[in-house]
Amino acid sequence: MNYFDLPKIDLHCHLDGSLRPQTVIDLAAEQNIELPSTDAEVIKEMMVAPETCPNLQEYLDRFALPIKVMQTAEGIERISFELFEDAAKENVKYLEVRFAPHLHIQQGLSHEQIIESAVKGMKRAEALYDIKGNYILSAVKFLPSDTIPPVLDAGEKFLGNGVVAFDLAGSELDNFAHDYVTYTQYARDKGYRITIHAGEQGCGQNVYDAIELLGAERIGHGVAIKDHEQAYQRVKQDVVGLEACPSSNVQTKAIPELKLHPLKEFHKDGLPVTINTDNRTVSNTTMTQEVEKVMELFDLTAEDYAQIYRASVEQCFASDEVKQKLMQYI
């Protein structure tokens, strides 16, 4: 099977985890940010997480350098454009990218300017390539909760025009969902769709709570439901999309090794599981590589892939018109 030529959909990809190393060097020079090296390979090593990290924090530490150069409108627009360009060039037909605008205000940009820059870069790529996309606005749990509403307010004008959803990301404590009920309700009231990082490092109960308390329509990762029957059945019953990120899940120790990933079992049992990159640079991967790993390791067929692709279309937050177009590729 030619994995490169397969039409692909990535629903879980972080902007700040998917920068080209040379772009970091270029932007640092423009912004007078001192780097330890101007060798792209050295910078890449600083941004790529080990194949197995001792914990999730070790993985998250790889975002520090990208965030430094993502404090200008021009830098954010360029990074957004390049991510969509890179994805389009490996036959990704639809891409949902998430990022936390509040991490990019260090040089005085407003939330609205930050979101506008990301959307502008995406739309520039859409005009040049056969790819469609949307942005998901994330809140990270290590920031104060009162930083969330201003981001949602700023993104509201872009809803349906480049922005589609709200996400909670970052390190995962057990029972975290209880602290965010008000904020996800605020997002839903404005028209945001909801996807929540849960069941990655934390327990399966977090996935159940994300659906029950926060109204999650999709779950980022969600692997922990394999050990939590109630959460598993809730995902199945409510047809909640699971955004599986195979390489990342091994790196962060969510799964000990790839062959133990529950993705195949989820798929065979009819759960709406999708294949995603998480972070193209930090995980040193592409959608082509993720699909190939999953297909080869789990001995999946072309029909299995078609089913996963269709699940991705059904679970994406795109318009009906875009969904219809995406279905034509398979």
What's this, in brief?
The chain has 330 residues and is α/β, with parallel strands linked by helices. It has 15 helices and 8 strands. The protein has one domain: TIM Barrel (Alpha-Beta Barrel), CATH 3.20.20.
Could you explain the architecture of this structure?
The protein is an alpha/beta fold. 44% of the residues lie in helices and 15% in strands. It contains 15 helices and eight strands. An eight-stranded parallel sheet has the order 1-2-3-4-5-6-7-8, with helices on both faces. Helix 1 (21-30) crosses helix 2. The protein is globular. The two termini are 14 Å apart. The mean pLDDT is 93.
User: Globular, elongated, flat, extended or rod-shaped: what is the shape?
Assistant: globular
Please identify which CATH superfamily we are dealing with: Metal-dependent hydrolases
- Strand arrangement, major sheet: 1-2-3-4-5-6-7-8
Mean pLDDT: 93
Q: How would you name the oligomeric state of the polypeptide chains in this document? A: single chain
User: What is the count of distinct domains?
Assistant: 1
Main pleated sheet: 8 strands, parallel
Query: CATH topology, what is it called?
Result: TIM Barrel
Q: Based on DSSP secondary structure assignment, what is the total number of beta strands?
A: 8
- What's the gyration radius in Å? 18 Å
Architecture per CATH nomenclature, i.e. the level-2 architecture: Alpha-Beta Barrel
Give me the strand/helix succession.
Answer: EHHHHHEHEHEHEHEHEHHEHHH
Give the fraction of residues assigned to helices.
40-55%
Extract low-pLDDT stretches.
Answer: none
Strand content: 5-15%
Q: Give the distance, in angstroms, between the N- and C-terminal Cα atoms.
A: 14 Å
Q: By helix and strand content, what is the structural category?
A: alpha/beta
